[in-house]
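Write out the bound-state structure for AOF.
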Amino acid sequence: MIPLSGGGRLDPPDRRLLARAVALGRKGWGRVHPNPMVGAVVARNQRVLAEACHEEFGGPHAEAAALAVSGDARDATLYTSLEPCRHTGKTPPCTEAIRSAGVSRVVYWAADPGPESGGGGAWLRHRGCRVDGPFGHRAHWAAENPVFFHTRKAIRPFVGLKLAMSLDGRIAPAGGQRVWLTGREAREEVHRLRAGFDGILVGTRTWKADDPRLTARGSVVPRILPVRIILDRRGEVPGSAQVLADDPPTLVVTSSCEAPGLRDRLGGRADVLAVPVAGTRLDLRELFQRLARRGLTSVLCEGGGTLAVSLLAGGLVDRIYIFVAPLFVGGKGIPAFPVADFLNVKAPARSFGGWKLRLDPARFGDDTLIVWDRGG
Ligand code: AOF
Ligand code: ZN
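---
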């Protein structure tokens, strides 16, 4: 169930239909970013007349799409996961569509923070429509639409960190031997998740050990292929690396000293980005700043442990995706990076320093995905 504090009381049928709108919105993953994922339901006396979501960036908004197929919507209620927009952007204002359809009540979940698009709720109220919303808080809305509600856009992209671990908190057996902890369904989910990010980042050890392709090969074909980003401080990536093959653009991040030679060696097969070195490592804060300047709004980091620790230590992570596989690795296995140390956990807690479980855990085959969000 979605959090529904504030905004007045909602009856159970209203809650159900509003939650349905939020669920419909999720279908836009990978297709609408950086716009929000939005779903809408048109109902009369709780009987559903139409459902829709925002399917494609630049395409019809969820509310307008639902009203376009609802038939007569006079005196109906529109449930929407985001406050209806009141601006003319790539499409006409949803508030106008709602008013001309004769909808008498709007129930919405998240407030639209946009200076031009926001305020549609008040606009409709002013014109005699009953409006209930917003419900919940920014942190809840951000959990559903992390990139849209990300507040540090100018400084860095929204950063997600993914890891898979065993029941005894290990990411791999002793000796660096590679094994798959999670099953097929969880791996498919990772591919689906990739589709919603602008960039997929891995550290040096990971590309050396796994030779990954870092493409999104799941059920969602991303609207824009995520840029593959690899850290390579010493400029060692071989031309045969899979990450350099095929379509999506690749960005090799290296130190300024290695950049010219690397650029020559790669001969245009990947873009090379030189960032300063802080201590013995590439300056990740600077890297993210530059990625933000290049227009990347989100990055998914997929390993390994060293990169994860650097990111957490630098306070550079907004979300952690933890896949828990129902198996034991054994005492000598490599522990999942010591998340708790970097999150400043002092005692057993379900929430601390803004970190919290906000989305429901999800099952993928035998594995469980737990998503931890920071903020609010
Ligand atoms: C969407 N889909 O279903 C709703 C949105 O770029 P535009 O012109 O399509 O406008 C995008 C803005 O409209 C978006 O940032 C948000 O403020 C508002 N509502 N956007 O893309 C939708 N309802
Ligand atoms: Zn709209």
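---
The longest strand covers residues 158-165.
The CA atoms of residues 133 and 196 lie 27 Å apart.
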